[in-house]
Amino acid sequence: MSSTTATSKSSATKDQGSATRSIIIIGALFFIFGFVTWLNALLIPYLKIACQLTTFQSYFVTFAFYIAYVVMAPVSTRTLTYFGFKKGMSVALGVMAVGALLFIPAAMSRTYLIFLMGLFIMGGGLAILQTAVNPYVTIVGPAESAAKRISIMGICNKLAGAVAPILIGLFLQLDKAEVLAGTTDEAALDEMALRVIPPYIGIIVVLLLLALWVYKSGLPEVEAEDEEDAGAVKKGTKKITDYPHAILGVVTLFIYVGVEVIAVDTIIDYGIFQGFDFETAKGFTTGTMGAMIVGYLLGIVAIPKFIKQENALKVCAILGVIFTVGAIFTSGFMSVAFIALLGLANSLMWPAIWPLALADVGKLTKAVSSLLVMGIAGGAIIPLAYGGLAEVMDKQAAYWVAVPLYLFILYYAIAGHKIRKA
Q1: Domain boundaries, the chain
Q2: Is-contact 179 156, C-beta < 8 A?
Q3: Tens of pLDDT, residues 139-160
Q4: Which residues span the membrane (predicted)?
Q5: pLDDT of 231 above 90
Q6: Measured between alpha carbons, how far is residue 357 from residues 261, 283, 319, 352 in Å?
Q7: Which is the most buried residue in 39, 146, 232, 303, by most CB within 10 A?
Q8: How much is the pTM?
Q9: 258 vs 79, 104, 335, 384, 398, CA distance in Å?
Q10: Is 230-422 in the same CATH topology as 18-218?
């Protein structure tokens, strides 16, 4: 009896240790998501000077990165079907390393198009990785604690976003780059462009080591589900258009990702516009990420015990309007602080929009989920619209683009998610 008990305890301890190792691996992957994604906030002002770009042109950084989510969506599915989820994640990390590798010839020739190609390939690899890693958050531990693990992964992602601009900023020496703004000294600009090579070599090494770690790890394989959703569509029993709330949910997610990317990726450039030097402004992204982490923690405590997810979305949308208007009508540090606070406004939107959009869709859950993932392309289009307005107006007035977008999110939280086809 005692021997059996000892064996059970040993097995339980082994399973717990395996789950812990798996969670650490997944946490590392979410960290690398955030590091690569939110590094764009630093690249926008850096490449604007190094490649002699207009404000509008500089926001093709976000376009190239996020449009990959739409272009690579079919490729992601095929890659994971062919390699499996675990090996597929290693492949995705390798693809991201190839994208980072392109930064070397891009810097040496100071060619913006090659930088954008590198960003697109990194975004494509990340799209595959995102598709593969999310199921693991659920299966590496008890189902009843999955929500807690999702929140932990979100915090890993945002912590990386807080660290990335500060760490890479040490290599780029943005305080010296500020002096070169508007210069036509080709030698000085060439020297500035080369500063990006050492940190990206480091990123390549980390990505390849992580790919090897995942490949050698004991992560369980995710079994493919039956394609019942596709069958349901073919039989004509239900169509996505039969669920207006789901279609509106995709639009809302598209908008949310767009305003989130604006809040994070414009703040350094906007801080410079408000008179701060590069060395100070590079830390502003950390403020936005810190506000998002606070929002995550509040959500863990408050939802659904104290507030429903649709009500949390209402509050977030209202805060988005208030903080945006506050940024427009103030100046200096106060205006930048309002942009940083948009991190708080955006923090609970992703976890609220998904369940509202997926409610009652039944066998079309996978089809709607695929559309929601493609909605991440909002990060490609909406910041580009901000960049265009910044050219016509100025970088402060251009934030007006976010006000109607937050109002649409508010509409979805109040009424849009309730619409069903008669």
Answers
A1: 18-218, 230-422
A2: no
A3: 666 655 555 677 778 788 888 8
A4: 23-44, 56-76, 88-106, 112-129, 150-172, 192-215, 243-264, 284-303, 315-333, 339-359, 371-390, 396-414
A5: no
A6: 21, 35, 21, 9
A7: 39
A8: 0.79
A9: 27, 29, 20, 9, 14
A10: yes
Which residue matches tokens 């604007």?
A: 48
Four-way CATH pick for 18-218: 1.20.272.10, 1.10.10.10, 2.60.40.1120, 1.20.1250.20: 1.20.1250.20
Which segments of 180-216 does DSSP mark as H helices, in order?
186-194, 197-216
Residue 161 gets the label, from left (phi > 0), alpha (psi -120 to 50) or beta, of alpha
Which secondary-structure segment (H or E) carries 318?
A: helix 309-329
pLDDT band at 175 (very low <50, low <70, confident <90, very high): low
Q: Where are the beta strands (DSSP E) in 117-180?
A: none
- Selection from 348, 368, 349 nearest residue 246 by Cα: 368
Amino acid at 23: I
The correct CATH number of 230-422 out of 1.20.1250.20, 3.30.70.890, 3.50.4.10, 1.50.40.10 is 1.20.1250.20
Amino acid at 146: A
The region that residue 53 occupies, defined by phi over 0 for left and psi between -120 and 50 for alpha, beta otherwise, is beta
CA 178/CA 166 separation, integer angstroms: 16
Angle at 313 between CA 310 and CA 316, to 5 degrees: 155
Cis upstream peptide for 244 (omega within 30°): no
> Of the candidates 401, 416, 154, which has an alpha carbon nearest to the alpha carbon of residue 299?
154
Helix 244-265 vs helix 378-392: crossing angle, to nearest 10:
50
pLDDT of 324 higher than 90: yes
User: Rounded to whole angstroms, how far apart are CA atoms 83 and 90?
Assistant: 10
pLDDT reading at 234 higher than 50: no
How many C-beta neighbours within 10 Å does residue 205 have?
Answer: 12
DSSP string of 19-54, one letter each residue: HHHHHHHHHHHHHHHHHHHHTHHHHHHHHHHHTT--
CA distances from 247 to 14, 66, 83, 317 (A): 44, 20, 31, 19
| Cα–Cα distance for residue pair 392/398, rounded to 1 Å | 9
d(Cα 410, Cα 310) in Å, to the nearest integer?
A: 10
Total residues belonging to the chain: 422
Q: Which of 157, 132, 136 is nearest to 36 (CA)?
A: 157
